[in-house]
Amino acid sequence: MPSRLDYISRKFGRKTTLKAIKYPEIEPSTDDIYIITTVGDRLDLLAYDFYHNTDLWWIITSANPDIIRRDGFVLKPGLEIRIPSDYYGVLKLFEDLNK
Predict the structure, then answer these.
(1) In contact, 78 and 37? CB cutoff 8 Å
(2) What is the rounded CA–CA span in Å between residue 25 and residue 90?
């Protein structure tokens, strides 16, 4: 699985340009998992617990834009957050947006 950061740079001969990454809007599903955060919860650890890949923390952040800030991995205790169950579908949307 390619890293989401592979979509940032493009090479044109000797020149490399950087572009902004676009993130998909993740619609709620009846299969999604809802959790209440506890002390010590971090986005990368939750991504590993649910997706077995710490690099997919951004999926959880994108699914909870009004709850999770994008400035750190540590989550405040007591937040109810949604964990999207179809992360393969989210990755496909991400790849389509960033071609």
Answers:
(1) yes
(2) 9
Question: Can you name the residues that pair with 15 across neighbouring β-strands?
Answer: 12
Contact, 9 vs 18, CB < 8 A?
yes
The 10 Å Cβ neighbour count of residue 23 is 18
pLDDT tens, position by position, 3-57: 776 767 666 677 777 788 899 999 999 999 999 999 999 999 999 999 999 999 9
Q: Which amino acid is at 74?
A: V
* 80: helix, strand or coil: strand
Q: What is the pTM of this model?
A: 0.84
Nearest one of 74, 75, 79, 65 to 36, comparing CA atoms: 79
Beta-carbon contacts of residue 73 (< 8 Å; ≥ 6 apart):
42, 43, 44, 57
